[in-house]
Amino acid sequence: MNAVKSLIGGLALSVAVASATLAAGVDVNASSTGLAMQGYDPVAYFTVGEPTKGDYRITTVYNEATYRFASEENKAAFDANPEAYAPAYGGYCAFGAAMGFKFDGDPTHWKIVDDTLYLNLSKDVQTRWEGDIPGFIDAADEKWTMIADKSPEELQQ
């Protein structure tokens, strides 16, 4: 339990530093310019199986955040069914959501589980999350209903 508390404390510090860059929306993790997933293409995880940077000229807005795509085909797929491709918990860290917090999701630390894209904060956090993916997803799904409309800062108080 102390290891989890230490991890959460370290993550809280990361959020405090990073939260100044978040867009006004609280249910999607986006930059101050509204860019989701640091510009990575959410569809590419499903089609090419790896993080792929999107093209700044190929974008769409979903839930008040701008998503970039590597191709017009990926954009069309997203536009037809954004819920199928947008990351869980608005792109916030899946482990953090399981703990009741909103930490930045890093698009290079990801996993698709049951056709849902999950992001995590770091390699270490991803490894911890992978220790009990079903349990952490259940916990995050439950907590997300309570934290989705709160800013990362509100959850630190």
Automatic annotation (TrEMBL):
Keywords attached to this entry: Signal
Signal peptide: 1-23
NCBIfam families in the cross-refs: YHS_seleno_dom
Protein's name according to its UniProt entry: YHS domain-containing (Seleno)protein
